[in-house]
Amino acid sequence: MVQVVWFKRDLRTVDHAPLAEAAAAGPVLPLYVAEPDLRALPDASRRQWTAIEGALIELRERLALLGAPLVVRTGRVTDVLERIHHAVGITRLLAHEETGNAWTFARDRAVHAFCRERGIPVVEIPSFGVARGLRDRDRWGTIHRRFMDAPLVPEPERLVPVPGAVPGPVPSAEDLGLPPDGCDGPQPGTRADALERLRSFFAGRGARYRREMSSPLTGEHACSRLSVALSTGSVSIREVMHRALAERALLAAMPPEARPIPVTAVDSLVARLHWHCHFIQKLESEPEIEFRSLHPVHERARGATAPDDPLLEAWATGRTGFPFLDACMRSLIATGWLNFRMRAMTVAFATHHLGLDWHAVGLRLARLFTDYEPGIHWPQIQMQATQTGINTPRIYNVIKQGLDQDPDGVFTRRELPELASVPPAFLQEPWKMDAATQAAAGVRIGTDYPSPAVDHADAVRTARERLARLRAEPGYRAAAERVFLRHGSRKRRLDEDDPGKARALRAAKAEKRDLQLSLDLPGVEA
Questions:
Q1: Cα→Cα distances 126→32, 109, 399, Å
Q2: Is pLDDT at 505 greater than 70 in this prediction?
């Protein structure tokens, strides 16, 4: 009896239900298949594989301690399974369900067909709080809560190995034909790295999480930075959620002055962990989101963007002439990570200001993100590009964002050394410098640093007019309601997605509360 546990994006031994189930039943062959065809796709990159490679090496060491080292093969999964089946006879294939891209979905179907033809039972178990085949979004909250509330699956105490299994090498990026991509040291995707980031976050690193997460300068320290490990699966989302809730309970029991981080910081982290599965469920329920706009009116209005489009290339390489936007892109190229607000801004600028197609934008960003998670990536790309019909358009003023998020220009100057000597008054609008000021700063706009790719005010006006025309088309609202019914959060109504209105409502409530308090004070005459 040889059970193959097929690891994909779940490179761990803790909270791994397929591994635990196989371990309880007999000999286990832990298998990972490095797939060159997958790594050659336009959403794959070297930085992603570097994170996976480290997690694989760590996983192999852990499995070896348990008794059965990880077997790694390179090629097509069905070809690898055929060779294993011919050699030892597979009696069962166990794996986690995967919400990946269209290619991995087709590959999984091919594996199911392979096993069906050979009479090999396949056991697939959910890895996230995501329900396969879900037709009614109203049920998702209950499904997600039950999954997250369930106990973690313990690591097996011992694995019975398959005699003669040869581990095989973990291929390098060069072995898979992945060229350098400008990110020499991406964040690790290992469990050890994730556990240390969890420890440091709750020990004090997350103290200013809510205040500093939006800035690319402070966010790199203040954010949880768990996304890479979650994308490789070296920790499960459920394990992180359980840890966060346990830490919250400990903090709540402490006097406020003794808490290393505020309880509200943990609440914000828990909310974002919830969003993780909320967005993945969208792609699981409608895989076409990877290629097709959610709202039919926006799909009909799409225009193609060629991979070598000059505007796309300028945006993707940080050469648009808008310093803060370019600094964010260059930082992403060099590090493989960017905080959420800046990710949203870069997508909105590309699709609204530059008029680029969201899918072309999404592919370039996918390759740059070490933490690329298809189930989050594509719904978010569509949301920020205003393709859903159920989200308020967010057209960022990248000049204002630079002034707000990088008021001293530290981040912008760090990422754009050609602008290091530009006076603060011109840093986010360097095209306004006259020739003498440019000479004094040692930069020529249009030569050393590009002129703006578009006129900011004209681009915003054009984008708003275009969106207004689309939203005025007959049937727009009815189609948006259908999208909301299938994908919308049940914690809000269709029209409750305007950040400005939400802020105004909170301010009005606070003003009313303050007024009430002032009227209630003893000895104060109204």
A1: 18, 16, 43
A2: no
pLDDT for residue 22 is more than 70: yes
Secondary structure tally for the chain: helices H, strands E: 24, 5
pLDDT at 511: 57
- The reported pTM is 0.92
pLDDT of residue 510: 54
328 class by beta-carbon count within 10 Å (0-12 exposed, 13-18 middle, 19+ buried): buried
Task: Please write down the HEC assignment for all residues of 220-283.
Answer: HHHCCCCHHHHHHCCCCHHHHHHHHHHHHHHHHCCCHHHCCCCHHHHHHHHHHHHHHHHHHHHH
Q: For the chain, what is the mean pLDDT? A: 93
Higher pLDDT, 525 or 209: 209
- Alpha carbon 125 to its chain's center: 22
- For residue 155, the 8-state DSSP code is P
Domains for the chain: give ranges and CATH numbers: 2-127 (3.40.50.620), 191-284 (1.25.40), 289-494 (1.10.579.10), 496-526 (no CATH)
- Taking a C-beta distance cutoff of 8 angstroms, is the pair 18, 94 a contact? yes
Comparing CA positions, the residue from 43, 7, 57 lying closest to residue 371 is: 43
Q: What is the rounded distance in angstroms from the CA atom of residue 348 to the CA atom of residue 341?
A: 11
**499 pLDDT higher than 90:** no
Burial of 311 from C-beta contacts in 10 A (0-12 / 13-18 / 19+): middle
Q: How many Cβ atoms from other residues are within 10 Å of residue 224's Cβ? A: 24
**Cα–Cα distance between 122 and 125 in angstroms, integer?**
10
Instruction: Return the closest-CA partner of residue 1 out of 28, 19, 32.
Output: 28
In what helix (H) or strand (E) does residue 92 lie, and over which residues does it extend?
Answer: strand 90-96
